[in-house]
Amino acid sequence: MNMFDIDSYHKANTVDEAIALLSQNPAAKPIAGGTDVLVRLHGNNPDYRHLVDIHDVADLKNVTMEPDGTIVIGAGVTFTRLVQAAGVSTNIPVLAEGASSVGGPQVRNVATIGGNICNGAPSADCAAPLLVLNAQVELKGPDGVRNLPLHDFYQGPGLVDRKTGEIMVSLRIAKSDYQGWSAHYIKYAMRDAMDIATIGCAVACKLKDGKVEGLRLAFAVAGPTPLRCWRTEEKSQGALADESLLKLVAGSVLDDLRPRDSWRASKDFREQIITTLAERVLREAINRQSRNGVSIS
Amino acid sequence: MIRNISCTINSRPMTWQIDIRMSLADLLRKQGYTSVKEGCGVGECGACAVLIDDVVVDSCLYLAVWADGRNIRTTEGECKEGKLSQIQQAYLDTGSVQCGFCTPGLVMASTAFVEEHKGEKVSRDQIRKGHAGNLCRCTGYEGIIRAVEQCMDPEKTQK
Known about the structure:
The complex is a heterodimer. The radius of gyration of chain A is 19 Å and the shape is globular. Chain A has a 5-stranded antiparallel sheet. In chain A, strands 11-12-13-14 form a 4-stranded antiparallel sheet. A 3-stranded parallel sheet of chain A has the order 1-3-2, with helices on one face. The longest helix of chain A is centred in the last third of the chain and has 23 residues, at 267-289. In chain A, strand 8 and strand 9 form a beta hairpin. Chain A has helices at residues 15-24, 37-40, 79-84, 86-91, 93-99, 105-110, 113-118, 127-132, 150-153, 230-235, 243-252, 267-289; strands spanning 8-11, 29-31, 50-53, 63-65, 71-74, 136-141, 144-149, 154-156, 159-160, 167-173, 182-188, 199-208, 211-220, 227-228. In chain A, helix 11 runs antiparallel to helix 12 (267-289). By secondary structure, chain A is of the alpha+beta class. By secondary structure, chain B is an alpha+beta fold. Chain B folds into 2 domains: 2-74, Beta-grasp domain (Ubiquitin-like (UB roll), Roll); 86-157, DNA polymerase, domain 1. Chain B is built from 7 helices and 5 strands, in the order ββαβββαααααα. In chain B, helix 3 (86-93) packs across helix 6 and helix 4 runs parallel beside helix 6 (142-152). Chain B is globular. The N and C termini of chain B lie far apart (51 Å). The mean pLDDT of chain B is 95. Classes of the chains: A alpha+beta, B alpha+beta. The interface between A and B is medium-sized, with 27 and 32 residues.
C-alpha cells in the first residue's frame, strides 16, 4: 500500500485554529479539497510534508451577500457549489463559466476556489473571471485581517502573497463591479473536459450610449500569472463598441501579455489563440449587454 | 498519526483505527471493497470513484480521515438482495462492460448522475459532461451513454 508522504498532520475546525496551527509550523501547508496537494504528496515531495487540514472548516464554505450587495465567496467553496449558488449564477455567471470548466465532476465536487487561487497556477480557471470582476482577496492571519486586489495577490508562477500563518478566508466582489456589467469566459484547451487551459480569456464590459464606459480583459496561461490587460483597457476607454473596437483590442492585447513556449503549446500558437479569443469573448460580452440596447452582430 | 473514524459503508456502520496518511481508496480496498480500483492516482481516470453523502468523488484523492461521519457508497452496495441496481442492469443491457476495470467507478458516476437529474430531460452532451471524470479505453462510451439514457427514460425504467 502506497501511503501519502505526510510527516505531520493537524486538523483545524475553525479559521482561528488553522491560523494558530500554521503559525506554529511555518513549513505547514493548508489542505482543503486535496485534489492538488494530495497529487503533490506523491513521490517524497519535501515541500508538502506538514499539513494543516482545513477540509471541514464550515466558516469557509458559504456564498453570501452583504447588505451593500458585495458577494462573499468562502475560500472553501467547491466548484460544484459555486456553479449552483444562486448569487453566482444570477449576478456573476462568468465565474460559473470558469468554475464549470475545471476538470471533471469528481474534481469539481471537492476542489475549492481558494485552492485554485492559492496554488498560484497560471492556468487557474477561476482566475480570469475573478480578475475581470475586480475580486478582492480577504486573508486572515495572526495579525488580523488583510484585503488586497487579486491582481496584487499573484506574485509569480506558483507564488501568491499569502504570508506565514495566513489563511485565505474569502474572495469579495463589490456590487459596482458586477451590476450593469456583462461578461464572458472561454477556456481554450485541447479537449472539452479534463484538460488544463491552453489559454483562458475573460472579458467584462459596461457600455453607455454605445460607447465603452468600462472594459476589463484578463488571460490565464498568457504569462507567469493570470494577467489583466491594463494598457488595452485604457486604450478602449470611451471607444465606440463596434467592429473597430474588436480590432483595436485584438491588436493590442499581446502588448499586455507574456505567453511562452511549453510542451503544451508553442508561444506562436498561444499568441494566435489570444488574439482570436480576445475578439470572440469581447463580442459575446458586448452582445450580452444587448439586453441594454447595444449589439454587434 | 493514528485516528479513529466512524462512517457507514453501503449503509453498514463501521469504526476503524486508521493511519492519517491513507487515502479512502486504500482504506476501502483493505477492508475488502475491491470494486474500488486505483488507476491513475491523480484524479484523472475515475476508476476509484465512490459516492460520499451521495456526491461522486475520486477516493484516491480523498484522505480516509475525511470519511469520518459520512456515508460512503461503492458498487458492492448498489446490488440489493441479489438484484442489480437499475444502473448496473442497464450497463449489462447495453453491453457497457468490456475489460471491466473502469466499470465500478463509472457505475457510481452514472448512479450520481441519474439520481441528480431524476425526472429531468437530459441531453447526450449533459450525460457526456457528467461522465467526463471517468476514462474507459474499451467501449468508446456509446453503450454507457445509452445505459444512462435507458435509466432516464421513465417508460423503459418501469419494466
